[in-house]
Amino acid sequence: MKLTHFIGGEAVSADAPNASINPSNTDEVVAHFPDGGAAEVDQAVQAARKAFPGWASASPEVRSDLLDKVGATVMARAKELGELLAREEGKTLAEATGEVMRAARIFKYFAGEALRRHGQTLESTRPGLDVSTYREAVGVYGLITPWNFPIAIPAWKSAPALAFGNTVVLKPANPTPAIAHALATIIHESGAPAGVFNMVLGTGGVGSAIVDHPDIDGVSFTGSQGVGAKVGMGAIARQARVQLEMGGKNPLVILDDADLDRAVAIALDGAFFQTGQRCTASSRIIVQDGIHDRFVAALAERAASLKVGNALDPSTQLGPASSESQFEQNLRYVQIATEEGGRLVTGGEALSLATPGYFMSPAVIADTDPRMRINNEEVFGPVASTIRVKSYGEALDIANQGEFGLSAGIVTTSLKHARDFRRNVRAGMVMVNLPTAGVDYHVPFGGTRKSSYGAREQGFAAIEFYTQTKTVYVGD
User: Fold this and answer.
1) Is 437 inside any structural domain?
2) Range of the structural domain that residue 145 is part of
3) Can you give the pTM of this predicted structure?
4) pLDDT in tens, 383-404
5) Which of 40, 99, 245, 377 is catalytic?
6) Is residue 245 annotated as part of the catalytic site, yes or no?
7) How far are the Cα atoms of 249, 338, 344, 369 from residue 341, in angstroms, in the given order?
């Protein structure tokens, strides 16, 4: 499969020297894609700028109809799109199909939001004046998206941008261009006017060109802290809007009073499903003394029983790492954790299966200290560390350590502790008796500290980033 850019309503062909590889079978090339750069970005931005006035002033029903059609089409093609996503990214087929359906519902949700424009009518302090506020589109948005949710995250950035009258230039992640290309194709087939939605494929130069382009009015980025900091500085330097989502090192607190089976199931889901490649994954598990040993033993037993295999095999429970670099990083962090004193209870090994791929056994590392690298740096793989604590207060203190603050969870039967945790944990999202990973598409998403910067994503909060307020005074 040879992929193209989408610029100004056209599929733009170019040499395709880059390849996306099936991580379940590294002998298979999923797609070849071009290596775009500043020239292609400039063409896409100019097309988006030209399309903006017409799209912003169109009836909201026009935008709503487009997004609804995109959502319906994605939903109708969920099986084929799910298979493509599983082949390219490595999620299990069930997880990949679930992500496709999430993307479809995001478009349908924002089809409704396109009709629900927010504003206020206010009393003036001066007689004879009327005051109103209106939300209006901002302009051209550059969207830089990651590989771990390669259709859902482009959807949750593109859908609100388009719903509120903006135009888009999307730069998808290099490991997963084919599923992004499939989404771009559907948007164009659904009737997006020329220039309203553009996509440029390529390496890091594309992202830099988007951030630096003077006609990009806002940048939304999801990725690592290091790259996010550069994106933020570049956008702010020219006073563009910027929104950054930069991962997490999410704590899951297990208290003595928790039901053991439930606690293990929650930790297993949060730490290992989707191969741990979720920014909301439960990567630090903080366990109170009274339940610690039983919990660690049960979690290790359940983790060891997970079937690791080809993402397209319906019986697979844990797919491969998405790429060779991610695979090597996962294994390296297991080694670092054990060298610093952690006890490898199970897993953490490269696996040789029927096809060559980036397979590893899920790792549980016990007896770790909160100061260890494994508890402060995002691994982004099927690796969970546990920390023993004596009390709830100690657990909360450790949960609040570090630079990240995306998601945090607690498993307890104590309403007192659940309420206190909800109020005092430093995280943008809090889960009580649930995995730290797994969020709804119609509510705000984002964290605190160095996990997030700028306005929240998704749901009713999206209007804050993708519109600006105009205040209008009317006299007699």
Assistant:
1) no
2) 5-246+442-474
3) 0.96
4) 999 999 999 999 999 999 999 9
5) 245
6) yes
7) 19, 5, 9, 8
